[in-house]
Write a structure and sequence with these properties.
Blueprint (H helix, E strand, L loop, with lengths): L1 H9 L5 H4 L70 E4 L18 H10 L4 E5 L1 E3 L5 E3 L7 E6 L12 E3 L7 E4 L5 E4 L1 E4 L10 E7 L4 E4 L2 E3 L35 E2 L5 E3 L14 E3 L38 E3 L2 E3 L47 E7 L3 E4 L2 E3 L48 E7 L5 E2 L2 E2 L9 E2 L33 E6 L1
Parallel strand pairs: 1-2, 2-5, 3-6, 4-7, 5-8, 6-9, 7-10, 8-11, 9-12, 10-18, 11-19, 12-20, 18-21, 19-22, 20-24, 21-25
Antiparallel strand pairs: 13-14, 14-15, 16-17, 22-23
């Protein structure tokens, strides 16, 4: 130390720059030069206000030249080392940019997809997005042709300096905000926000981020919001016939049978034919078959009339849905409640027997009532859906909306009355009444999930692998949708058989993280 003091004294008349080596006080933090302030290799915070000398904030050469002891780490992030925000490392994009621009800070591009393509074309691995709303040219799609990129938000558009409040917000009107598919190297997304669209059609879901068959999907300080799912639509009632009653039989000796009565669903009913003199009357029929022998009898002096056909049988109601949906490689798939089934037709009336008097044919049986279809499943609200992918989150905030209510199954409609038998001394029988249609099943309620995943690798949240958890810090879920009510079977027409009821769907669920 003594020798150093002697040397300094000897050169006390030298320049101010030489005096810096001895701790001379003319140039220090806050004045017009570049002080040596004890932070060798990385200028101190005080240097930021020293008026633009050769330090960590005053000269762009610091990013690479190492002139004053500082070397920029190209693998660092804007929040740690501002020097990485440079054209030599990435392409720049702004909500007010133009995609035909050069992609520099002075001339940024507009859409993130175009900026990613430009980065790949130039052999760069980064895209820098300044804060604001990106609603043009979205969704952000990262497939194998964009593998290995890093996206950085949190930058001001005016000076491209780091500001954690300046997230780059991606908010499409439909589809996903971020879709990742078939990545091997992966993608890193920092200081972004992804907003799931607001769905409008019955049963539609809102999913903000979808990852499929991708490794190394890393989200840091990313906010993800999904909108409310839409209530499922109610089922509809179907008609199975057009007239109030089936065709009647003819009133004549050897009267023709009523029908056939062809129903919309392909079933039918046919009355029995009246007998010729000395002959035998026909039995009423239907498809599907119901009832038995109902023809009259013939004789030389006496005959008997045909009897009424049997009423059609009812079928089972539609089953409700017990799951909000399933995650596949193509996205989130939902199913409605099962449809009910049309009622079966009644048997045709039996033909009247013959003697010397007039005989009549049997009336056709009525068609079954139309079914009620199933209700739609309510839409779900899912922040991140991950299928066969490895997703890592750090300091992220996820907010899922509410699930939509399940739609109600539709009621079945009443069966058709049978046709009248042909008149005469030995008349034909009346056709049986069709059964009522059965009700449809109710749709399931939509769910509210922070992260829904399927595969072998659970998501990692702040260094912890999470499989199934109802609550996780940083993840907020909404209210699940209510189950869709069952459709009712039709009340009987006259003495016919009523349709059977469907069953209700199940309610949705709410989980911060859930595996499917």
């Amino acid at each position: 130390m003594r020798n150093l003091l002697l040397v300094c004294a000897a050169i006390s008349g030298a320049s101010a720059l030489t005096a810096l080596a001895c701790g001379g006080g003319a140039f220090n933090a806050g004045q017009g030069g570049n002080a040596v302030d004890g932070s060798v290799g990385s200028d101190s915070a005080a240097d930021a206000g020293d008026g633009g000398g050769l330090d960590g904030s005053g000269d762009s050469a610091d990013a690479s030249d190492g002139f004053d002891g500082f070397t920029c780490d190209p693998n660092s992030t804007p929040s740690v080392e501002p020097c990485v925000v440079t054209e030599s490392l990435g392409i720049f994009v702004s909500p007010n940019g133009v995609d035909s621009a050069a992609g520099t800070r002075a001339a940024p591009m507009r859409t993130i997809n175009a900026a990613m393509d430009a980065a790949k074309a130039k052999g760069l691995a980064r895209v820098y997005a300044c804060g604001g709303m990106y609603s043009v040219g979205v969704l952000v799609s990262i497939a194998s042709n964009r593998d290995g990129l890093s996206l950085f938000g949190g930058l001001t558009c005016a000076g491209w300096t780091y500001d954690a409040t300046q997230q780059a917000i991606v908010a499409p009107s439909s589809g996903y905000a971020l879709e990742v598919d078939s990545l091997v190297q992966g993608v890193s997304v920092v200081d972004f926000g992804f907003r799931g669209p607001t769905p409008v059609n019955p049963g539609d879901s809102s999913i903000a981020v979808f990852a499929n068959a991708s490794q190394g999907v890393v989200l840091t300080r990313v906010s993800v919001t999904s909108s409310n799912g839409v209530d499922g639509g109610a089922g509809a009632a179907f008609a199975n016939y057009s007239s109030p009653a089936g065709p009647g039989g003819n009133s004549a000796s050897g009267g023709d049978a009523g029908g056939p009565n062809n129903c919309v669903d392909g079933t039918f009913s046919l009355g029995g034919a009246g007998a010729l003199v000395g002959g035998f009357p026909g039995v009423g029929s239907s498809m599907p078959v119901v009832g038995g022998g109902n023809a009259g009898t013939s004789g030389p002096t006496a005959c008997t009339a045909g009897t009424q056909g049997a009423n059609g049988a009812a079928n089972s109601g539609g089953a409700g849905v017990h799951s909000s949906g399933s995650l596949t490689s193509t996205g989130w798939m939902t199913a409605p409640g099962a449809d009910g089934v049309d009622g079966n037709p009644g048997q045709g009336g039996g033909g009247g027997g013959a003697n010397a008097a007039v005989t009549g044919g049997g009336g056709a049986g009525g068609c079954g009532g139309g079914k009620g279809s199933g209700g739609q499943t309510g839409g779900s609200s899912i922040c991140i859906a991950s299928f066969a992918s490895a997703v890592t989150l750090s300091s992220c905030a996820l907010t899922a909306g509410n699930g939509g209510n399940g739609g109600s199954g539709a009621d079945g409609s009443g069966g058709q009355a049978g046709g009248a038998g042909g008149e005469g001394a030995c008349a034909g029988g009346v056709g049986g009444t069709g059964a009522g249609g059965s009700g449809g099943g109710g749709g399931a309620g939509g769910s509210s999930f922070g992260i829904l995943w399927s595969g072998t690798t659970p998501p990692t949240i702040d260094s912890l692998a999470v499989t199934n958890e109802p609550t996780v810090g940083g993840i907020t879920t909404g209210t699940p949708g209510m189950p869709g009510p069952m459709g009712m079977g039709a009340s009987p027409t006259g003495a016919g058989n009523p349709g059977q009821n469907g069953s209700a769907g199940s309610g949705g669920g709410a989980m911060a993280v859930t595996m499917q």
